[in-house]
Amino acid sequence: MARGKTLSVVFKSNMQNQGMLLPPDLSELIAKDHPVRVVNEVLEKVDITKLLRQYKPGGTSSYHPRMLR
Question: Cα 11 from chain centroid?
Answer without folding.
Answer: 8
